[in-house]
Write a structure and sequence with these properties.
By secondary structure, the protein is α+β, with helices and mostly antiparallel strands. It has two domains: about 110 residues, Aminotransferase class 4, branched-chain amino acid transferase, N-terminal domain (D-amino Acid Aminotransferase, Chain A, domain 1), CATH 3.30.470.10; about 160 residues, Alpha-Beta Barrel (D-amino Acid Aminotransferase, Chain A, domain 2), CATH 3.20.10.10. Strands 8, 9, 10, 11, 12, 13, 14, 15 and 16 form a nine-stranded mixed sheet that branches. Strands 1, 2, 3, 4, 5, 6 and 7 form a seven-stranded antiparallel sheet that branches. Helix 5 links the parallel strand 8 and strand 9.
Length: about 300
């Protein structure tokens, strides 16, 4: 199947405060972000025309910019409004939203204090990443050769573009070898996350265990699923998990904006059986995002 390139599409992108025809939303090749990865971004899902947990994403975008030593030149309310406008202008019902902020081309070198901070927001149709049936078969994963860096070596609390280079390398190698994704360990050798999603294990003690997010993002979907799990009576344990402990896990699953809640069938030599916990939390998450969408639509309608 031929790829549909992202630079040649119909539609509209919000760029620095203006709705811009999709093909005209461009930046210069000498932008600082392209050369030095001085960019932060978000990934958001649209359900029934409403963006799930939009404000939490926007707040994280602005905080990520601050961590990278720049101020996003719009308020949370302004970016929220722009995201909703992009979804509406492009007629998105179920889709994906990508806000990004980056340093421009005013300075070319490591120092970039006087660069302009640009902001763009795009949205496109994106239905479920996997069908419920495919999701329940579970993902096949390998251990990545790359590790998540220590917090004193990279801005690990930000959703910064540069932090995803090793994710791309890990994902490419996994797919080349017939896997769906890769599990990354942290610099100490503990389980960290997949290339773009957090991970949970249902252990033999009947509790859900998930790595402490001290060198990677505490995902918004991760936090949502923790709340849903607690409502179901699961005890959630956040701790450092050694790779060999995966031998004691009955079920395993990923959480993230793109993957939502997706079971894992295997990670290297460790196998899991997607079961009740995976199915329950998949269904609960699906209901939660649709409930939130309907609620947001009602609030929006009342405000109008």
């Amino acid at each position: 199947m031929a790829l549909m390139p992202f630079d040649d599409r119909d539609g509209w992108i919000w760029l620095n405060g203006e709705m811009t025809p999709w093909r005209e939303a461009q930046t210069h090749v000498l932008s600082h972000a392209l050369h030095y990865a001085s960019a932060v971004f978000e990934g958001e899902r649209v359900y029934g025309g409403e963006i799930f947990k939009l404000t939490e994403h926007t707040e994280r975008l602005i905080e990520s910019g601050r961590i990278l030593d720049f101020e996003v030149p719009y308020s949370v309310a302004e970016i929220d409004e722009a995201c909703r406008a992009v979804v509406e202008r492009n007629g998105i019902d179920d889709g994906y939203v990508r806000p990004i902020a980056w340093r421009g081309s005013e300075m070319m070198g490591v120092s970039a204090q006087k660069t302009k901070i640009n902001v763009a927001i795009a949205a496109w149709e994106w239905p479920a990443y996997f069908s419920p049936e495919a999701r329940m078969r579970g993902l096949k994963m390998r251990l990545s050769d790359w590790r998540r860096p220590a917090p004193n070596t990279a801005p690990t609390k930000s959703k910064a573009a540069g932090l995803y280079m090793i994710c791309t390398l890990s994902k490419h190698k996994a797919e080349a070898e017939g896997y769906h994704d890769a599990l990354m360990l942290d610099w100490r050798g503990y389980v960290a996350e997949a290339t773009g999603a957090n991970i949970f294990f249902l252990m033999a003690d009947g509790k859900l265990h998930t790595p402490t997010p001290d060198c990677f993002l505490d995902g918004i979907t991760r936090r949502t699923v923790i709340d849903l799990a607690k409502r179901r009576g699961y005890e959630v344990v956040e701790r450092h998990i050694a790779p060999e402990e995966m031998a004691d896990a009955r079920e395993a699953f990923l959480t993230g904006t793109a993957v939502e809640v997706t079971p894992i069938a295997s990670i290297g030599d460790y196998s899991f059986e997607p079961g009740t916990a995976c199915r329950t939390l998949m269904d609960d998450y699906d209901r939660e995002v649709r409930r939130a969408s309907k609620e947001a639509a009602l609030i929006s309608g009342s405000a109008a």
